[in-house]
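for the recovery benchmark. tokens below, seq after
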């Protein structure tokens, strides 16, 4: 008789999984891991992940259980459990840059990060998921979708052909992206938002819940409404990440220029003075996005709490 016999367990080796965070998103991820294990068992497969526990910086949670899953200690305990894989599950509209800060603080190699996919999610064979990303229940990735690293995709999200989602982005529940949409690094798309095909949502920007995005959203801004319009600059943590990204890009460009000048050992061609040319009026010069502080008419964003007991998306 072909195929696994009743009671037979097949599949890959089960690995321990640590969830960094113990708030809403972390609890949803833990439930997705449980659901995936149940689906594996129903099909005679060994579970992909064994849920080892949560890690959270709130000392009041240490030694307790959250939905039956133990909180083993603070986030830095990942270094004491080197065999376990990790997924960082923190963030909220108030501070959607916290995942990037935590990943930077932990300093783990990419190979330590897991990818968690709920068994009801549909991911096409032509789509790609980055390490550390989480897809919750009933998400759909139709064709040639590229999802970066440490991306949070909440329930009922639909990503259609050729969408690109940058690292650390968050798509809240019920988001729908038309084809060819590009979400920048760290962008937050609020619950129920609709984004028109071939539209760009800039890095570390936020669209409010229920927004209808019909035009490009610049980096580091908050837009909302139907159609979505600019409300203000993003909060301090998001703008800090935007400035950090710009500085890193500038440094990388400088390093590449230095390497180019040092290449080759043969004689160099005779230097020529370039002709002075006026800019082509038809093509405006590209500009780096400007990191802006929050509008003076809007209260400053509160400093983020380093604890993650109750982040909610």
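predicted aa per position
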């Amino acid at each position: 008789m072909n195929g696994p016999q009743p009671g037979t367990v097949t599949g890959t080796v089960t690995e321990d999984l640590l969830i960094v965070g113990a708030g809403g998103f972390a609890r949803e991820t833990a439930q997705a891991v449980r659901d995936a294990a149940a689906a594996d068992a129903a099909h005679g497969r060994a579970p992909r992940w064994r849920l080892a526990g949560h890690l959270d910086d709130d000392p009041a949670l240490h030694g307790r259980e959250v939905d039956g899953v133990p909180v083993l200690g603070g986030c830095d305990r990942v270094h004491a459990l080197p065999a376990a894989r990790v997924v960082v599950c923190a963030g909220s509209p108030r501070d959607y840059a916290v995942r990037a800060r935590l990943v930077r603080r932990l300093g783990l190699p990419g190979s330590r990060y897991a990818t968690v996919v709920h068994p009801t999610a549909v991911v096409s064979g032509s789509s790609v998921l980055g390490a550390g990303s989480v897809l919750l229940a009933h998400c759909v990735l139709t064709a040639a979708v590229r999802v970066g690293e440490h991306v949070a995709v909440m329930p009922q999200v639909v990503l259609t052909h050729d969408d690109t989602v940058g690292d650390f982005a968050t798509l809240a529940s019920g988001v729908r992206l038309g084809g060819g949409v590009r979400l920048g690094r760290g962008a937050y798309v609020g619950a129920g938002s609709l984004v028109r095909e071939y539209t760009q949502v800039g890095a570390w920007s936020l669209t409010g819940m229920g927004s209808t995005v019909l035009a490009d959203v610049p980096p580091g801004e908050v837009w909302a409404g139907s159609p979505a319009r600019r409300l203000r600059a993003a909060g301090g943590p998001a703008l800090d990440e935007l400035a950090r990204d710009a500085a890193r890009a500038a440094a990388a460009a400088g390093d590449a220029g230095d390497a180019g000048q040092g290449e080759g050992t043969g004689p160099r061609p005779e230097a020529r003075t370039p002709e002075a040319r006026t800019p082509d009026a038809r093509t405006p010069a590209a500009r780096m996005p400007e990191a802006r502080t929050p509008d003076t008419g809007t209260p400053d964003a509160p400093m983020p709490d380093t604890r993650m007991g109750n982040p909610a998306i």
